[in-house]
Structures are given as C-alpha cells and as structure tokens.
Specification:
Blueprint (H helix, E strand, L loop, with lengths): L2 H7 L25 H8 L14 H14 L3 E5 L2 H12 L5 E5 L4 H10 L6 E5 L4 H7 L4 E7 L11 H8 L5 E5 L17 E5 L13 E5 L1 H14 L5 H10 L3 H20 L4 E5 L9 H7 L6 E6 L2 H11 L4 E2 L9 E3 L11 H6 L6 E5 L5 H14 L1
Parallel strand pairs: 2-3, 2-4, 4-5, 5-6, 10-11
Antiparallel strand pairs: 1-7, 6-7, 8-9, 9-12, 11-12
Cofactor: pyridoxal 5'-phosphate
EC number: 2.5.1.-
Pfam families: Cys_Met_Meta_PP (PF01053)
Length: 387
C-alpha cells in the first residue's frame, strides 16, 4: 500500500467488540495467564505487554505506522521530541565518545550537546551545515555519532545526506537525522543512508497543538540498544498521546500537502515585498540548496523564514501587528504561527552563536497553517505595512 493508505489502514486488530476506531488502552500494567507466561514475558522468550513504561497497544500502533512511513525496521516512542534526542544519545554513547554535529540545531539540542553531555565526558564538534570538508576533518578516532538537522531550524539549510553517509561509511559512526520539519511525507532519511530518524511528534505529526511526543526510527539492532536504555530511564509516551498521534497520522499527508503549497506561495510573495531583505524556503529557486532540496525532499514544507528590514524593532512590531497568526513557540499546527527565534527558541545561544547559524535580530520564522492562503497573506501584508 502507498504511504497515504498505510497511515490510515495500519492499526491494531479489532477486539471482540469490533470497534472501527482503535480504543484507548489506559492501563499501567497487564495480567498474565499464569506464572509460566509471566516468566516467559520477563525473560523475553515470549512477546507481549508487561508494563506500559515498556510497551502499550496504542504506543505500538503509533510506532509501527511511523516505521512503515519512513521505511524503518523498528522504532521507539518517547514523551517529547527532546526526550527522543536525549534517549538516542544516552543509549548509543559513553564517556570518551565524540559527536560531530551540524551547527544549526534546535536550542535545547545545543544545550544538550554543549553543557549536559560534556558532564559525562562526551564531547561535540560543530560544523557549518553544508561544509562537507568540515565534516570530514571533524571526524576523530573516537567519533561515534553524527547529528544533523535538515532542513535546519530556523535557517532551513539543506544537508546532503548521501554525502554525509559516504563520509561515515565503514567507520562505526551512527548518522542521526532530526526529520521534524520535513515529516515522512516530505523526506525519508533512512533510504538516503541515515541510521536513525528522529521526530518531535509534537509538531506536524500531531498537527493541532494538542499533545507532546517523540519517535525514534531505525534498524532493529539499533532500536534494541535504545529500548534497553529507555525501558530503565523511563522517557515513555503516554497511551493517550500515542493514540492521538496515531490518529493524526491519518490526515498528515493531506495536511502537509496544504501546508507546503501555501508556504511556497507565501514565500514567493515575501520575496517580492519591499520590506523584506531575503527569504528562505527550500523550494524557492533562490534557496542556495534548491537543487538538493528538490532531489532529496518531496515538498518544501510549512516553514518560511525571512529577514525584515529594520532589525529587531521592526520584527517585534511585525509580530505585534499580526492578527491571524498565533505568537507561540510551537510549529507545525493547523493554525499559522509566527516566532522571533533570537528572543525565543534560540535565546539561550549567545549573539555570536546565533550569528554563526544565520539567526539575526530581524529573522522571523513562520509556520504556515491550514487557513486560506489569501487570509494568511493579508495578515502578513498588513503587519509588514505597519512595521
């Protein structure tokens, strides 16, 4: 079946009640037929649910759908996107290991790489997103993992995954890709050579600003290592959130198609506006990595970033003048969202660190929602006139 059908029709077997929509399994634990079955489950001689920190029917369905959509053998779901990032790094790295990461990463990921992991003797070297010689030079004898965001947040840089995996091939290095901005309907990192794909399911997968969640996808071998760490450290997703996210996957393809088509049109119009210095959108021909984006991605996605003339003051005025857009730190919602990264999502970075990844004081990040595109543009245009 094609992905759109898989997202709708891959679900748990119906119970004796023959429900059409999968029910919620709100239970912390499960009973066994007898002591022998209990022993077999705990010794992993027999598959089955034991405790909802380990597995749950709703969680299992969500993971299976995501694995099918991304071409993964297996997966693991977590309580949030950052829980997914930390779980991967905590499970696969040990003291003395080294990470190579693209410089443009989410603010909390930056804190994890530069302040938290070093406490345990795990170091990181940053490389500018598309500096492929830099990646080659940064790899050391103790490098065990390469971490990438593509498209990056918020600069929308596109990293050639096949070039990166060619550099790491045969060196015992795990390539991890944050695929949050693209979703499985915009990009599949695993067929391009990546070992692990991570999502903050809080964003487009939920798509309606309701629930937190994260998911890790990869080979059965890697997920087995991650599972052992996650079962005992407890970053598990709730059955209710997993149920919501699994239901949301049924509409992700049509939502993401509308997100992308509207965002492309908004980016095109912004590029022509006199109060805008520049615009970044992967499927604009002016994007530095346009040809790569067209080759590696199926659509440009919902995120548009631009630099407004006048710097931070104009940016703040623009945000305060918006009427339709929500001012919130989330993205990937049915509702359009505007954010000022320098003072919000990336405010923990120093000014120099922000400048190194292209985050200026006048940078605005838009997450284009599902409202009518003309209404979205009317709101942007009026706010630009007032800024």
């Amino acid at each position: 079946m094609r992905k759109e059908t898989v997202a709708i029709r891959s679900q748990l077997n119906r119970s004796e009640f023959q429900e059409h929509s999968v029910p919620l399994y709100m239970t912390s634990s499960y009973v066994f037929e007898d002591a022998a079955q209990m022993r077999r489950r705990f010794s992993e001689e027999e598959k089955g649910n034991i405790y909802s920190r380990y597995s749950n029917p709703n969680v299992s369905e969500f993971i299976e759908k995501m694995a099918l959509l991304e071409g993964a053998e297996s997966g693991w779901a977590t309580a949030s996107g950052m829980a997914a990032v930390f779980t991967v790094l905590g499970a696969l790295l040990k003291s003395g290991d080294h990470i190579v990461s693209s410089r443009a990463v989410f603010g909390s990921t930056h804190k994890l790489l530069t302040e938290i992991l070093p406490k345990w003797g795990i170091t990181c070297t940053y490389v500018d997103a598309v500096n492929y010689m830099g990646y080659a030079e940064a790899i050391q004898a103790n490098t065990r993992l390469v971490y990438l965001e593509t498209p990056s947040n918020p600069g929308l840089e596109i990293i050639d995954l096949q070039r990166i995996t060619a550099l790491t091939s045969g060196k015992g290095i795990t390539v991890v890709v944050d695929n949050c901005f693209a979703t499985p309907f915009g990009q599949q990192p695993l067929p391009l050579g990546a070992d692990i794909s991570i999502h903050s399911a809080t964003k487009f997968i939920d798509g309606q600003g309701r629930s937190l969640g994260g998911v890790i996808l990869g080979s059965s071998e890697l997920i087995k290592k991650i599972e052992g760490f996650a079962r005992h450290t407890g970053p598990c997703i709730s059955p209710f959130n997993a149920w919501l996210l699994s239901k949301s996957l049924e509409t992700l393809s049509v939502r993401f198609e509308r997100h992308s088509s509207s965002a492309h049109e908004i980016a095109r119009r912004l590029e022509e506006h006199s109060k805008v210095d520049w615009v970044r959108y992967p499927f604009l021909t002016s994007h530095p990595d346009y040809e790569l984006a067209k080759r590696q991605m199926q659509s440009g996605g919902a995120i548009v970033t631009f630099q407004i003339k006048g710097g931070q003051q104009s940016g703040q005025t623009f945000l305060n003048s918006l009427q339709l857009f929500s001012l919130t730190a989330n993205l990937g919602d049915t509702r359009s969202i505007a954010t000022h990264p320098a003072s919000t999502t990336h405010s923990k970075l120093t000014r120099e660190e922000r400048a190194s990844v292209g985050i200026s004081d006048g940078l605005i990040r838009l997450s284009i929602g599902l409202e009518h595109p003309e209404d979205i543009w009317d709101d942007i245009e009026k706010a630009l006139e007032e800024s």
